[in-house]
Amino acid sequence: MSAKIQTLEVQIPISSIAIHPYHSDKICLGFLDGGITYNNLTILSDPDKNESLPVRVEQKWRRKLKMAIRAITFSTDGFFIFVTASNRALCMFDTDTGKRIRCIRQSHKSRPNEISLLNPSIGGKLHFATGAENGEVKMWDFRLTKPQIAAFTDQDDIINSFSTWKNCLLSACGDGTLAAYDIYKRKLRICSETMHSELLSLAVTKRFTYVGAADGYIEVFNNGEFGNIVERIETPLIMGLNN
Hints:
- The chain is mainly β.
- The chain has 1 helix and 22 strands.
- The protein has one helix spanning about 120-125; strands spanning about 5, 15-20, 25-30, 35-45, 50-55, 55-65, 70-75, 80-85, 90-95, 100-105, 110-115, 125-130, 135-140, 150, 160-165, 170-175, 180, 185-190, 200-205, 210-215, 215-220, 230-235.
- A hairpin with a 5-residue loop joins strand 9 and strand 10 (about 100-105).
- InterPro entries: ASTRA_WD_repeat, WD40/YVTN_repeat-like_dom_sf, WD40_repeat_dom_sf, WD40_rpt.
């Protein structure tokens, strides 16, 4: 029987996690108390008495924001970490040193809930989007003096998930709609008809975009045709598809 990796236990609940784009043993954790840690993970080769492989965590640095961390992601090159918090702060940290490079105190009118990188060929490696509980979506370019480059209010509830398809940012919302924003032109391309329940998660493939819903169904869209679905797939996950 192969050994299992030991569960990592923490004292404060983890609210968000991001894995370095080039080094899978380096992770950033966000906590409900506002803490942020950058860590090296090492899976040891000798199983313990429970036949589990112990995990050694080496904390490189820790920083603290005033309220709970809502979302974390690395820049495309891994040099920076973007963080949103419940007090509406949006901050950028240097990955190696933990130095706070920039912080927007009130990035949204309501609490931000999601963050996603955008196509670096369009806006560079510091180009990303955030979504808030009121449905507001913003695009940012942290190379600029005034970093907010677009804001949208086409959806009316919490932004649960982002993904990208070609030059489009896809936004799954609690109001049951999927919005597609043109990243290059910075405008709404299309917003879908309202689905049967809250939309929670996104997965984009070569031909289709799959959207997980709160009623346990997967809403299927043809890529580039996000106005309405082509199929609904029933699953046994009646509590919803969060991922």
